Amino acid sequence: MYSLTCTLLLLFARQVFNKPLEDPELRQDYYQGDILYQPVRTRNGIVNKILHWPNGTVPYIIEKNAFDDSHHREILRAISIIEENSCVVFAPVTEEEHSNAVVIRSNGFGCNSAYLGYRQIQQIVNLQIFPIGMGCFRIGSIIHELLHILGFEHQHVANNRDEYISIQWDNIQPKFNINFVNTDNSTLWHDFGEGYDYESVMHYVPKAFSKNGQPTIIPLRDGAENMGQRLYMSEKDIRKLNKMYNCPGYV
User: Fold this and answer.
1) CATH code of the region 20-244
2) What b/e string do you get for 172-186 counting C-beta neighbours within 10 Å, with b at 16 or more?
3) What is the tens place of the pLDDT at every residue in 138-164?
4) pTM, rounded to two decimals
């Protein structure tokens, strides 16, 4: 039975993407693979408090009939992990109250977010249906998209990234070079004193947007064994989130 289940999961991946290992966070039609609107490049964490959710409270609604019970529970589990590790609160709202809320839905391919941070408008998080534990329903992928909503960029574009990783430009599909650029010095960025984090749930996988199957990101230091993991929030992820939202004990 276990062998049959694994075979079916692999077939599912091939049918959806034509490639068994393609990552649904790396869609070609989204900025950096999973952001609908290109953000002001904040180099990991948004500092501007105007873009932090007021009082650390995120009103949200899971779109009706979009998910079965098991997928609905997995979304709630991701929310609870963020809540248990910070002072951020996700507050369910009714459909009548969703004009400034996060709407979690499943509409089309990929797992993606519309914007980074609070925008005083409705925010969309899309989670394509996959078997639990795969694709957009890896627990870390759900957390990843919710951290975008809370105000986090991808780790690999941090201002100091060249001290920790080497971008292999020759291995990147040229039209996706923009997804690796971090030369914008016009905006504030902040790692909240935590430094670079190979283990961050916000880090790209080593072969993101590769044109030849070779790595596009090579770590320059030890400790990168879990680079690109989608299983948990790292300790630095947790501390950065708490510092961003001025949680007790982290001010």
Assistant:
1) 3.40.390.10
2) beeebeebbebeeee
3) 999 999 999 999 999 899 998 889 999
4) 0.84
